[in-house]
Amino acid sequence: MTLRLVVAGAAGFILAMGTAASAQDAGLIAKGKKVYDAAMPKCKMCHAIGGEGNAKGPLDGIGGKLKADEFKAWLRTPKEMATKAKAERKPPMPVYAKEKLSDEDLQSLTAYLLSLKK
Ligand code: HEC
Predict the structure, then answer these.
(1) Average pLDDT along the chain, 118 residues, taken 10 residues at a time
(2) What distance in Å separates the CA atoms of residue 54 and residue 69, rounded to the nearest whole number?
(3) pTM of the model as a whole
(4) Ligand 1: residues whose CB is within 6 Å?
């Protein structure tokens, strides 16, 4: 009887933890979407998500292709990343330095980009 209660309690706890974590993720992703829309120069000028924006640079499904560190590198050091990826599209991706995009905004933007899975 007691054991049953403990097991039920533990299961409930794990479930609650899972819900809390995904609610937190959802919040971060929503924040990241706002950063994507607000960042200057606008990401949409050169990229599209869900058919909205510049179709030459679709980011749909990008969350399944790149890792968090790679997104951060694209934003902070795009020239190096373009060289590595042999990306030749013009105009090239601009640098989003800390003054334009804080570490906190970069964090939520990365969460948003990671959530873009096909
Ligand atoms: C002036 C144009 C321009 C702007 C503005 C821009 N990018 Fe880019 N971005 C590029 C180009 C060019 C590439 C190289 C890959 C390609 O050709 O699409 C690229 C690559 C990327 C990649 C890697 C894509 C891949 O397929 O590996 C990501 C992720 C990305 N950009 C995100 C963003 C985000 C987020 C913003 C806004 C904060 C942004 N970009 C703003 C031009 C731009």
Answers:
(1) 70 70 89 98 98 98 97 98 97 97 98 95
(2) 24
(3) 0.88
(4) 36, 39, 41, 43, 45-47, 57, 59, 62, 66, 71, 74, 82, 85, 87, 89, 91-94, 96, 109, 113
